[in-house]
Write a structure and sequence with these properties.
The protein is mainly alpha-helical. The chain is built from 11 helices and no strands.
Amino acid sequence: MSFAAIFGGFGDTFIGVIKALLPILVLFIIFQLFFLKLPKKYIYNLMVGTAIAGLGLLLFLQGVHVGFLPAGEAIGKYLGNIESYWLLIPFGFFIGFLTTWTEPAVRVLCDQVEKASASSIRKTTVLVAICVGVAVFVALGMAKIIYGIPLLYIVVPGYIIALLMMWFSDKSFLSIAFDAGGVATGPMAVTFLLAIAVGISSAMEGRDPILHGFGLIALIALAPILSVMTLGFLARIRKRKKEL
């Protein structure tokens, strides 16, 4: 791959990172000037950290642009031409689990959960629950593409079940569950899994990439809500057994 190909669209990516970080930085400066009055050393460390984060985000997004998106689409187009379409379902489970396991935002959430709960809720337990939930729904998303299942047939019952489970799950897990739905739809899922889904639907005969390829992110957002609430339900049962 040539230098021009690697850094193609670098300027647009740079502008996007600036637009993402600048409002937060301006807000902090306003609070610093009028309310916080933090020492200069703290401000220096914050500025250095912001610069490092911005550089990392810039390189990551550029890598996504030239790496993850084309790779995901190429894999999807290849898989869309295989004869045994049912193999896409176990593949979806595997790639869904693996992608979520490597999702940085999911790791951050799990670390914060363990820290805030004083280690009463283990980060590994939450991580596995999120990964399994996403894996199941990515597999379900592959089935949606293969058999042409309307998205509403999955999303509407899923959220109805989530609302019902709120009454039975341990209250400590409710907020975690809905936050998990947000972090699971991070850059790995959006760039890689979505590209695979669009690639598969575009390669399959009779499947509109817009109609069938998209919607996977909605399923990924729903998956951790149900899986973490299920974890909370099991935790509630265990508490009741201890009380007896």
